[in-house]
Amino acid sequence: MMKVARPELSFWERTNIPQILKGMWLTIRHIPKRKFTRQYPEEKPPLYGDYRGAPTLVRDPEGRVKCVACQLCEFVCPPKAIRITPGFRDEGRPDADVEKEPQEFEIDMLRCIYCGFCEEVCPEEAIFLQRDFAIAGYSREELKFNKQKLLELGGVREDSIWKWKYKGAPPPDAPAAPAREPRIQALARR
Amino acid sequence: MNELLIHLLKIAGVIGVMLGIVAYTVLAERWVCAWMQDRIGPNRVGPFGILQPLADGLKFIFKEDVLPRHVRHKFYFTVAPMITMVPALITVAVVPWGSYLPVLGHNIKGVIADLDVGILFIFAIASLGVYGIVLAGWSSNSKYPFLGGIRSSAQMISYEVCLGLSVVPVFMQAGTLNLWNVVLYQAEHTWLVWCQPLSFVIFMVSAFAETNRTPFDLPEAEQELVGGYHTEYSSMKFAMFFLGEYANMFVASALMATLFFGGWSLPVAPLNAPATTLAVGLAHVGVFLAKTLFFLFVFIWVRWTLPRFRYDQLMTLGWKVFVPLTIVNILVSSVVLAVMENG
User: Is residue B23 part of a domain?
Assistant: First the structure.
């Protein structure tokens, strides 16, 4: 058994008055101090390097849909947020018989857990997690993003993959490849 | 006729300014608490958030007025918030806001009701305020408001004793119960806080208890009583409790300024005597309001510094510390005053 000796309190300590004054001095000193509030909608929080936000579909520098409807992302998606209806490219296009293309590509943003597995698994580097984190809507339906919406959000990915255009090395004027995302290695380690 | 008009104008002015200050005290409370916690506070409604009270008021008006089914005595339930609010508005009538306002040949005295019983009137009316809280707690017919009401009645009665006894030396020294004359005494001599510091401290602490402010906010006690007596209230009824609390704070601050800090007077040349010009008269009102606002700030400051007392500590402090101290204070003051007067 341990006995904790209580400190002997002086008369003033027992009146609590010095402590009250001390406390009030403390609070008033905080009034002019720096404030920690972030004015959110105007002032966004800083996002770290490999932040995982909304997943989107991207186009290649030629403006073509990169996704080939292999459905690997649909398969790997832990919460089953992705639904792909496979299809073919429009007849008459020069690359119509080269690869498939999804007829419809839906991601339910309410189901998505932003794990980034879809991006990891994609053999075509067609799906990327962006840095958007504030995804809001008025209904559940509205938050099922379709192919068109996902392509709009994703935009064009300027990378070094020149599919169907050049055999072998890319042309000398092709843009340099951006640094590979560090999270790929991080996830592989896991 | 003119007299009546002047009085009506005075009442309208006092009530208007007071309710304005009360509304903005709520905003000031949120600002000060935010600053003390290194936050920014309300800043969205209007520039720097100064229109926040208007937004709050609108919200209260448009909220649904819920009458819980378990409320059996609808009359008392409805009347309780009014009883809390009204005494605060009545008591300002005897508080001197200024000395004189010489306007258009009239020498208007800066107080609505120049009662010779002044402070007794305030105690008489202010003690009615507890009925509002007790009735609210009882008529809500649910446990938390009931506990809040019980705590409130015990607390208010205990601290009214201290409140009343603590100011006795002040009136012994000033020789009058009329608050305007108490201020005049202080203008001619010195602020009573220098002569009666113990009175002032006890009065201030008791005022905190009377207005249900932290560290004595046991009747409300959000964490234990989910809001206490106003748990079942919503909409304007809740707003009235809210405004009543802040109006009581205003009256308590005004009383502290009046009784101990010279009311409208300042110990400098034109401000230490009743006004003869309009400018000085208005300056007196300004001085009074500045002192009152300072004490309102102290109310807020203390609330965001000190945690709540335990119930037995509250009662011990009231009955075992303050009541004996005030009695000793009265005895010592009367002896000193008697000695000073008779040689």
Answer: no
